[in-house]
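Sat 14:20. Reprocessing the chain from the morning session after the first attempt stalled halfway. Input below, unchanged.
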Amino acid sequence: MKTTSIIRSLALSALATGALVAPAQPALAERSFEEIPAGTFAVPCPDSELTVAAAGKYAVIELPGGRTKTIWPGVSITVTGESGESVTFEGTAGLTHTTPLSNGNQMFTATGRNFITVPDANDHPVGVFLTIGTVSWVLDENEEEVGGMFTGTGRVTDLCALLG
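Finished this time. Tokens:
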């Protein structure tokens, strides 16, 4: 599965951190946050399309070992289906961790509340998901999914099914 988060969907780099936080990281207030670009974007679902609008700030933090972490505290996301029905998620304050693996693959771990888009790949349809808790996935060098779409103990809400 080639996976993107809302920040990447907004044409920004949103691949993020490793499993361990580097020592001596500055406090959140000291980090340099950037505004999410204004506007909406369309995200395909299996039988429809959702429109997404987001507001808030994000930061990408470089960590040792080629790891990164993307944080977006307090981001607000509104997702609207073709029928006009919408849902807003306030305080979507998740982390997306990216860890390079020794075989060239990358492991992604999303913690907290995250908005994740999934393109059509590996015999599963496109989708838009809200994850709460901890979910993981692995991509190979071609950004193809290795293993299941989401693994872990977190909850996954299929927004295409909810609003499509």
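The helical segments are 6-9, 159-163.
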